[in-house]
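Action item from last week, closing it out:
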Amino acid sequence: MTQPSGGRSGSAALRAHYLARIAWLRTSGLSALLVLLGFVVFILPTLTSFGRGWHFVTDIAVLLILASGIIAVVEHRKLATSLAIVSLLVIAMRIAEWFTPHDLLPVLRNISILSALLLLVIAIGINVFAPSRAIGERLFGAIVVYLLLGLIWGVVYSVLGTHSPEAFSGQPGASPGLSGWVYFSFVTLTTVGYGDITPVTTGARQLAMLEALVGQLYPAVIIARLVSLQDTSK
């Protein structure tokens, strides 16, 4: 039996509405994510005069980043669900630190944050290279991935510097939390290399070398890929 044309048009309209809604959520989440990452990387380190309140602002910013990331990748249900679960773990670890100080909790929190950021990089990367994406959305996604890479290495350096103080010379002890390590990460990612913080041990040097290599290759690869995607869409 042939389906009435009105039913087909109604289904098509519902699907178009659904796709438009998903696209709006993806764009909104990506825009919020870009703004929040810019705030965390460039503005948040200047708020250290707030004392303990600085840590609260940092926690809120991290949670907003994760929430924006979930919204930005909502169409990838498995990744979005995994990211939501890991985000809940990050929240649980942070709340546990407030009420039950324990040396193991910061380690677990850093692992959960790293897991969430890695999932976010994968999901945003899929969006960047997915078909039928506007060039502006691809560029926003590429910038978000770049900033996330800097944050990921910043967390790794923080963990390494905490557990192996001899791994770096000139550690950013004056900068609380991750801000000093994020600074070192982006200085390394962009291959500026001021020399105020220097990796000393083999492990720290290998991490810095890998980040510098990614910082050099990523712009070239992403530009070439975006150009090829534009050419194939014509």
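Closing note: The first strand starts at residue 168 and ends at 169.
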